Amino acid sequence: MATLTERRQRKRRVTLLDLAEDLGLSTSTVSRAFDKDAVIAPATRDAILKRASELGYAPNPMARSLITKSTGIVGIFVTDITNPFYPEVLTKLTAGLQSIDLKVMLTVADSSEDADDQLRLLLSYQPDVVLVLAAVLSSEAIEACRNAGTPVVFFNRRPADARALGVTCDNVGGGILVADHLIDLGHSKLAFVAGRADTSTNIDRWEGFSSRCVERGIPSPRKFDAGSFSYDGGYRAAHVLMNDQQPPEAIFCANDILAIGLMDCLRREYGIAIPGDISVVGFDGISMASWPSHALTTVRQPVEKMCTFTIDVVRKLCQGKALKPRIERIPGELIERETTTRGVKA
Amino acid sequence: MATLTERRQRKRRVTLLDLAEDLGLSTSTVSRAFDKDAVIAPATRDAILKRASELGYAPNPMARSLITKSTGIVGIFVTDITNPFYPEVLTKLTAGLQSIDLKVMLTVADSSEDADDQLRLLLSYQPDVVLVLAAVLSSEAIEACRNAGTPVVFFNRRPADARALGVTCDNVGGGILVADHLIDLGHSKLAFVAGRADTSTNIDRWEGFSSRCVERGIPSPRKFDAGSFSYDGGYRAAHVLMNDQQPPEAIFCANDILAIGLMDCLRREYGIAIPGDISVVGFDGISMASWPSHALTTVRQPVEKMCTFTIDVVRKLCQGKALKPRIERIPGELIERETTTRGVKA
DNA sequence: CTGAAAGCGCTTACAG
DNA sequence: CTGAAAGCGCTTACAG
Checking CA distances to B293, which of A115, A225, A305, B20 falls within 20 to 30 Å? Predict the structure, then answer.
């Protein structure tokens, strides 16, 4: 804690009282000038706002929040941000939240044990809403939010807790899209490369993919575990896949970065032609997937829509509206590029 | 603004007063239990802390900040986060700041006009320090920080303002490393691909690179402008470079992602062998550069050290220490991989 | 439409 | 070592 003398060095800010005295008005009136819904004479408001900007006055959100019980802060909770899908999402979400006058408090947790502590710390700052991105929250953690009265919104994760709100791509539907695409191409020996097994994205994409294969009378795809949604995971998975009995004709990777790692290994270390020898499909639609050197066929997540929807949910929640628990699933779109092609049998 | 009824729905949190009454103590004493430097009987503190955790009480940082004039918030200000260098840095910085009980408020600005407004909004939350990452701040913006009494620390940018604090890689030194490497390899027809011309990283890397070439009696490198630090920028730069009179023997790209875009274009669209026909060097040391498919020779920024140093500076600043304006330049390291090799003349 | 007064949840001299 | 009191910068019933 800074000593008094040290603190004094920080310049004193202009306060509401300073402004009121300067204008010869009460603090009540001045305060009302900054609330668009308040009853105040337009001329008075104009004069106050004018003088405020001259003096460089802006209301102190901390003081305000003490009374309104609303901080205008939304906590964004993240664990794994190394997946290139997230920087884009984080930027969009933050920018969108800013545009409706909300501020983002970012929390990163490296492990699940750490996650609970970090969440508690975040909660102490009384965010109006907590947005969970790329993270798995324990049920105690969710309970802590409930106790604090802070609504939680899950992004790109289907919450285990049925009473929570969530926004995701239609991952099951996306898996179906991939199965259809691959089967239509004439492939029948399919494989799936899984990322983190405990994530809903992974589970749902597999679910859609494998169930569709069964529906269409194709043998159930073999499943390989990469262990994480990462380049290295994909690279390693390629090895175990090639050491397997008989390589598949087509591989659906649970996300793009996995697919890119897998393809690099397949091409470099096994001389596999993609497509030709093996077709590969990813999921996410990150910009890297569109680069000429990858030209990856993938399911593009409707990031724009997902963010817009999320921001709208957050806005309502911040206004104190009680929203019914639900998961919004927005359909993705199959983008056919150059890593899939007609199979040998066709 | 939420109506009263709506707001009432949020659960009332346990306050310091609740805890004090529960324990039959004064608020002063209870308050002291949460300040490690306060004078209080150990037994009293223990009892308070124990009951606090039972009741789920945590001090309200907003209320506290009103008195202490210190929020424990550090604002991180970012514009361009699409460069894969930043997600890693942002994660490290945030995690490090969390570990010393500081919270991160994230601000993204899409344009420079927007930047000033967003900074003002950020400042209204009274962050103890503002950390500027991947952004160019106007001098008015910096002035606004000074007026608010909020110290600013620049990360990976050398501030124009001489009174500011900054932490960067030794970019001039890095440029020299690259020049030496390429010249030692026997190359003499060199080129530089610039990212954003107005960034200090770009300027300094060029400065080191070009001045070293002159020193060693090599013709001054040709300079190509990619316009941004991006894959697309690198890809486009490759085109203009190849349409130029005579292609260079070696190319130094102002950062890794530029180099990767450039190489993809060179290989795919011109059938250029790298190395062999042309050597390429990047800057940053992002993980993508180490992938087998790129194996890019690059200057690795000492991210770990840069972050540690930055966090330490922020910590001191939060404690109210007045630090002398200075820019800490930490040397980078040349990582030789597979995109550079002995030139034709050697 | 405006103002006086109370109070949000804390911390900190000051007195004991 | 502890407590009573003032106050941080605001907002909001309530009264006029």
Answer: A225
Minimum distance, in Å, between the CA of residue B101 and any CA atom of chain A: 9
Indicate left, alpha or beta for B138 from its phi (over 0: left) and psi (-120 to 50: alpha): beta
Which residues does chain A have within 8 Å of residue B234's beta carbon, measured at their own beta carbons? none
The span from the CA of B150 to the CA of B127, in Å, is: 7
- Top-confidence residue, A3 or B185: B185
- Report the residue from A6, A35, A125 with minimal CB separation from B1: A35
Asked if A252 and A191 count as a contact pair (C-beta separation under 8 A), the reply is yes
DSSP string, B177-223: HHHHHHHHTT--SEEEEES-TTSHHHHHHHHHHHHHHHHTTPPPPEE
Distance CA B289, CA B275 (A): 15
**How far, in Å, are A125, A305, B119, B167, B305 from residue B130 at the CA level?**
18, 31, 9, 13, 19
pTM: 0.91
- DSSP classification of residue B96: H
Of B143, B112, B232, B185, nearest to B334 by C-alpha is: B185
Q: Please report the domains of chain B, with CATH numbers, ordered by start residue.
A: 11-57 (1.10.260.40), 73-169+303-332 (3.40.50.2300), 171-301 (3.40.50.2300)
Q: What 3 state SS string does B276-329 have?
A: CCCEEEEEECCHHHHCCCCCCEEEECCHHHHHHHHHHHHHHHHCCCCCCCCEEE
Positions of chain A with pLDDT lower than 70, given as ranges? 1-11, 342-346
- CA–CA dist A58, B92 (Å, integer): 32
Position A342 scores a pLDDT of 64
Would you say the C-beta of B32 is within 7 Å of strand C?
yes
* B7 pLDDT more than 60: no
**B76 reaches A (C-beta below 8 A):** yes
pLDDT of residue A345: 42
For B211-247, the pLDDT digits (tens) are 999 999 999 999 999 999 999 999 999 999 999 878 8
- Contact at CB, A103 and B88, closer than 8 angstroms: no
List the B103-108 sheet strands across, edge first.
A327-330, A165-169, A152-155, A129-133, A73-78, A103-108, B103-108, B73-78, B129-133, B152-155, B165-169, B327-330
Is the link from the previous residue into A275 a cis peptide, with omega within 30 of 0?
A: yes
Q: Which residues of A touch B107 (CB under 8 A)?
A: 94, 98, 103-104
pLDDT digits (tens, 9 = 90+) for B118-173: 998 899 999 999 999 977 778 888 888 888 889 999 999 988 777 889 999 999 99
Closest residue by Cα to residue B195 from B262, B246, B250, B133: B262
Confidence at residue A11, expressed as pLDDT on a 0 to 100 scale: 66
CA distance A57 to chain B (A): 9
The three-point CA angle A47-A48-A50 to 5° equals 65
> Which chain B residues are closer than 8 Å to A63 by Cβ?
62, 66
Identify whether the C-beta of residue B170 lies closer than 8 Å to the C-beta of residue B299: no
What is residue B342's predicted lDDT score, i.e. its pLDDT? 64
